[in-house]
Design a protein that fits this description.
single chain; about 100 residues; mainly alpha; elongated
Length: about 100
Amino acid sequence: MSPTLTEETALVLSALEERLAKKGDFMRKEVDELDDELRPEYDFSKMTGGVRGKYVERYRAGTNLVLLEPDVARAFPTDESVNEALRLLLQIAQRQQPNNPIGAD
């Protein structure tokens, strides 16, 4: 017996909530200098070529840059595959709430 649309949505949302909760904990973690795993041979003061604000114009233009974790990148190797999967998730969510379409402005 396959899960119903509601069960599928609940599973997807549950997984997303769990992932975001873990990521949120990671983002709040304070870095102690003694726990820094950066190798001593990396001296960023000697590095050249970095440009501050390199992507600011893309950001202002509305382009979204998202870093995918390696396991997700393997499952969705192209921007088209990521967008297709997200659109499918939106369709599932819209079916759950037909009176309040997601993404409608």
